[in-house]
Write a structure and sequence with these properties.
Layout lengths: L14 H17 L24 H9 L6 E3 L18 E3 L13 H25 L1
Antiparallel strand pairs: 1-2
Helix pairs in contact: 1-2
Length: 133
């Protein structure tokens, strides 16, 4: 069902399959007017701060020449009561698009660092808003 909905599953244990899935996703970005949602950390982090970013999402964006639009979520670990009607508050913010057109893989480390820094600062601001509320 997940696959039928258009989701791409990446098997990190199978390098060849993972690379093929990334190539197919890049081709889709290039050929269709579509967006993809990628978690650049490559895994769940339980809402306890940003983990190091993986390269795959940024390589795809550069190869397809599409912008990256970071979406940030306030820290939710220890703030939400799961299975409750009044479970707590979470703030979400999308940041300005980061263009990748004209970038090469040589630009990858700076692009990743820029995106992570922007997201880290935004999450800190969101968390501060919640503590003031």
């Amino acid at each position: 069902m997940y696959w039928l909905a258009g989701n791409v599953l990446i098997d990190r244990g199978n390098g060849r399959q993972a690379k093929q899935a990334m190539l197919q996703t890049t081709e889709t970005l290039q050929q269709r007017d579509t967006s993809i949602w990628v978690f650049p950390e490559g895994t769940r982090n339980l809402g306890k701060g940003l983990l190091p970013f993986k390269k795959g999402a940024f390589q795809m964006a550069i190869a397809a020449g599409v912008p990256i639009i970071p979406v940030c979520v306030s820290t939710y670990a220890n703030r939400l009561k799961i299975n409750s009607w009044s479970s707590g508050k979470v703030l979400i913010r999308s940041l300005p698009a980061i263009p990748t057109l004209g970038l090469t893989l040589d630009d990858l480390p700076q692009l990743m660092e820029r995106c992570q820094q922007m997201m880290r600062e935004s999450i800190e601001q969101l968390d501060l808003q919640l503590t003031k509320a």
